[in-house]
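Anyone else keep sequences and structure tokens together like this?

Example one:
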Amino acid sequence: MYVALLQIGRDTGAGVILDTPTWMANPDRAVLVGYDPDDLARVTGDSVAFAQNAARTAPDVATRVSVQIGPRGDGYAAGIATIDGARDYHAPQVSAARAAKADMVSAYTMGSVAEAAGIALAAEASGIAALISFTVETDGRLPDGTPLADAVYELRDIADPAAVMVNCVHPDHIDNARDGRPWQAGLAGVVANASRQSHEELDNATVLDDGDPEELGSQVIGMKRAFPNLRIVGGCCGTDLRHLRGIARHASAP
């Protein structure tokens, strides 16, 4: 996958973030698949080294290696309830990313401000940049019911991540969160789902809904009209290289 992503960057001139496959590398999930929590620092370090080696094969492509961090529990649930609890829980993975010399950490599919803020504070304490990405339901609210606008404001009051984003949602649903307030100018990234289905519908689906790759590319880049500082774009559930190439092609169009 890294090779294919780097080729898209080469073909379109887009920079590429190489996320490590560590979204589920937390202590709760590790035990369920036979890993000891003490293994997680090694897993994170090995994942960073793998991505760094891939980046070195493409010196002509601007790359960043990021350690992907997921929520403690289900990605469509509210998440850890307290900021301190989230900071302490995720700090070991953040520290492992810093020790492995990753360029940043990326917290994806955050369903609560508390868990997002805790990761951002852990990153600040470790001295590593953080991308913090919320997810929203079809109504533009986080799984805990917080409007996206309020979540962005609350997060910025607590921490100062390098970028605030939205992921695992179709552009139509992000549109439902728009209210014309200044937070929209601060949204830096969208990593979109291919499908317009709700999270519940996706969880219960028996057939993959891959949407329309060309339409998705146009919609994601078209969001810059509402979010003028959008600079990090990509694909989440249901997307593949067709979608990513379409997004990158639209992004590089004059």
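And example two:
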Amino acid sequence: MPQSRPDGLLAIYPHITSRDRQLLQLLDDHHVLTTDQIHQMFFLARRTCQIRLGELYGLGLLDRFRFARVGGGSQPWHWTLGHNGHRFQAAAHERPEPTARSSRQTVQRLSANPNLTHLVTVNEFFVRLWAYTRRHPEARLNRWWSESTTTKQFRTITADGHGLWSIAGTTVGFWLEADTGTEPLGKLVAKLDRYADLIRRVGVRYPVLFWLGSAQREEHLHRLLRGRRGDVAVATATHETSPAEAMWLPVGATGRVGLAELPTDHGQPVADNPNFDDDGVFVL
């Protein structure tokens, strides 16, 4: 009796490397990464990166889109999961198999999302931390949570992202608020109330990092924050800087410090704190 033909997804398994698996998981978690971001995280040569992305696109594991650039030319490719990528991730996480139509709609909705620029900016922050660890073995990005994961885990927190950053034996948690200049600064300041509530509830004290689009906007935010009282630590930097470097200006300070130098407290080992397991052990 002739053997049945293997499933199309199974047939491409021999072509999927461990690096590809990491990329598929990141796109499952964070939806979109540009060519440059993927290059920073996984490749040495840009051309090698472009070739591999083209191969994954050909296998249906990735999909892509880009827009016209103001003044001519095109923006970089934005990469997301293709239909086979969605199928692979669904199988890996025991989720229902997606249809080709649902995969196509997911890409279309993402490409038309008015918050796409903000999402790419948030991901850029974490990509730069990841890239730093490639050059500095003592550094590690232990946690990179999206807005949805952060809200799911901490319930009242709606940060753009959350991370745990370790360097030279020190682990610092942080909340990211990535600013693209579309919100009034007063609205950014108002977000601090939720972080204060979390401190009172479970004792988690992580600095709120406002990553701003310009030095002028950073200066204006500090003016608003100087008179504010509260337990929430706040530090700022601009998009032109590397978040892993000594570029963070705490409110009320005169000098900039590194991310690992900011105050942190992982809170109490209670049921409402996802930083600890059932045995009260801190989970990186």
